[in-house]
Amino acid sequence: MHLIDGNQIATALIAELKAEVATFTGRKPCLTLVRVGDDPASVSYVKKKEKTAAEIGVTSRIILPPVTITQAELFALIDGLNADPTVDGILVQSPLPKHLDEVAVFRRVSPAKDVDGFNTLNLGKVAQEDDTGFVSCTPAGIMELLARSGTDLKGKHVVVLGRSLIVGKPIALLALQKRAGANATVTICHSGTTNLPALTRQADVLIAAIGRPEFVTADMVKPGAIVIDVGINRVPDATKKTGYRLTGDVHFPTVAPLCAMITPVPGGVGPMTVALLMKNTVKAFHLRAAP
Ligand code: NDP
Fold first, then answer.
1. Which listed site, 177, 181, 249, 289, has its alpha carbon 20 to 30 Å from 38?
2. Within a 13 Å sphere around the CA of 180, how many CA atoms are in the beta-carbon half?
3. What is the pLDDT of residue 289?
């Protein structure tokens, strides 16, 4: 079994971006992060994004509206960022408080600054295999992980567990694309799928993104499969200082010995998500600078 080291691959990508940004004279790319409220996971994600931006030389700005912000106020804030010529990328951290319509907020971000890739236009461009848009960071990170660990999806059966707009749907579309590295046969499973283990056992590449701790067990995996564990779940653990431990959607101890390759949690897909956000921000900077 080979462990796909997301930290190492993300570090390589970050070093490439840092070298590229160092060549920019004048203004540096600017990423604005909007975090509504104090969801603990969001606090740590935004911190990590801010830290990585600084490492690369990307300017970051953090806006922290109160949890009581209305939809109209958040729209006005986004409109201001859309119009601000010094801002290249905008990320509104998900999940948003329940009273806000997340998809409407994603739509409000200008497609040209939508480095999170959730605007309708950018999601549509993934379906149309149009490279001028932004691919959402976690799915793009998974494709990069696979490519940099020498996996060509061509002809492989990719089974995606989960159909969210953030992970499941876009990763399925990317694996399906008719291009080098992709070209897979794709099955998407969700909570309405019957006999799920029979489908997951057919996977050459199994991508688990359901948000259920250690859901995928050894009996659900074909020996020799490649397993990408997207899940980040906080499980109560009294032995930890924080009171919880992080676990993926895959039961790592029993599944890993079966696999050709597997991503750990933490240290697999997570670091790639942040690295791809930086890649998208640099891309937004280039696209906006182009005549
Ligand atoms: P969502 O909750 O939005 O979607 C979960 C999906 O899994 C849904 O499609 C749901 O089906 C499906 N599902 C849930 N339970 C089952 C089940 N028992 N059997 C079959 N399908 C099921 O989650 P996200 O896609 O946003 O996130 C998934 C996981 O990935 C989470 O742990 C999240 O923390 C993590 N994540 C990690 C990132 C990273 O950077 N590594 C980034 C984003 C997310 P249905 O549609 O029918 O409800």
1. 249
2. 2
3. 78
Q: For ligand 1, say whether the CB of 6 is within 6 Å of any of its atoms.
A: no
Annotated active-site residue 93? The verdict is yes
Q: In what order do the strands lie in the sheet with 89-92?
A: 59-63, 30-34, 89-92
Distance CA 192, CA 189 (A): 8
Question: For 197-240, how does the pLDDT look when each residue is reduced to its tens digit (9 = 90+)?
Answer: 999 999 999 999 999 999 999 999 999 999 999 999 999 999 99
Q: Does the beta carbon of 231 lie inside 6 Å of ligand 1? A: yes
Same domain flag for 97 and 159: no
At 56-85, the pLDDT tens digits run: 999 999 999 999 999 999 999 999 999 999
Query: End-to-end alpha-carbon separation of the chain, Å?
Result: 48
Helix residue ranges, H only, 149-193? 168-176
Domain limit, last residue, from 95, 110, 125: 110
Task: Please tell me whether residues 262 and 189 are part of one structural domain.
Answer: yes
Query: Can you give the CATH number for the domain in which 148 is found?
Result: 3.40.50.720
49 is catalytic: yes
